Amino acid sequence: MDQSPRERFAELARVPDDAIDLGEAALLIAAEAYPTLDVAAYLARLDALAHEAKRALGGARGGVAAVERLIHFLFAEKRFVGNHADYYDRRNSFLNEVLDRRKGIPLTLTLVFMEVARRLGLHVEGVSFPGHFLAKYVGDAEIIIDAFFGQVLTKRQCRERLQAVLGPDATLEPRYLETASAKEILIRMLRNLKHIYLNAAEFEQALTCCDRILLLVPNLPHELRDRGLVYQQLECYGAAVSDLERFLQLAPEDDSAAAIREELLKLSKLAARIH
């Protein structure tokens, strides 16, 4: 019997982080919004991009030259581009749409770059840089890549971007350029989608994002809190109480804990009435 996208995603969530196929996992996220999506066909699209890029890289000597040519191939020749005009369009967070439209946000464009680079034997990692997801090549030199703008960033540019987000006194510490794990990348993708769904009051879809984040990292306090509040919106009061109580057990001193305790008093009464 074929697995559902959720079952396959749950299976991937249980493997070691470095064994997660990010391209497949991202497409499985999309498959819940696109029930007829052919995951294998889109993985083949990434294979084809890499095959075409291999010719474009030609006789590049060393990883740095190869990465620079790959940047030109994807963002100049193939015209993958950041969607400046409609940044919060949900399609920007679905890998199938990004491959079809060649538009996305920093995270999904970085994912395309990483997946093509991996197929070419180039060690490119994701970076959860404040405010704007980046990539970095780790090899004969370190290169920081902004896939949203299709360019290499100098350390000075990284510092300027950091200060624009955190203030003029911020310093570019190594932690800001640390590698993001596969699970961290998927959680960031799911959180982007969750916020889009919540802003549109699409609570059932937001719930699917919470569920998948908790498949990746069970007992993540803020996700339990958020899922409990989504359950509240869906009038699933018993489930809401369960999640919010667990949140308070895990994070009793959280800034939101007092408000959640107040909410729990109301929800417990509602749950008792129903049952």
Kindly describe this structure.
The protein has twelve helices and seven strands. About 60% of the residues lie in helices and about 10% in strands. Helix 1 packs antiparallel against helix 2, helix 2 packs across helix 3 and helix 9 packs antiparallel against helix 10. By secondary structure, it is of the alpha+beta class. The strands form two sheets. The chain has a five-stranded antiparallel beta sheet with strand order 6-5-4-3-7. A two-stranded parallel ribbon has the order 1-2.
Assembly of the depicted chains: single chain
Helical stretch tally = 12
How much helix, percentage-wise, in residues?
55-70%
Q: What does the main sheet amount to?
A: 5 strands, antiparallel
| Morphology | globular
Structural class: alpha+beta
Q: SSE order in H/E notation? A: HHHHEHEHEEEEHEHHHHH
Strand order of the largest sheet: 6-5-4-3-7
Radius of gyration: 21 Å
Taken together, the total number of domains comes to 2
Extended strand count = 7
CATH architecture of the largest domain: Roll
What is the CATH domain class of the largest domain? Alpha Beta
- Distance N to C terminus: 37 Å
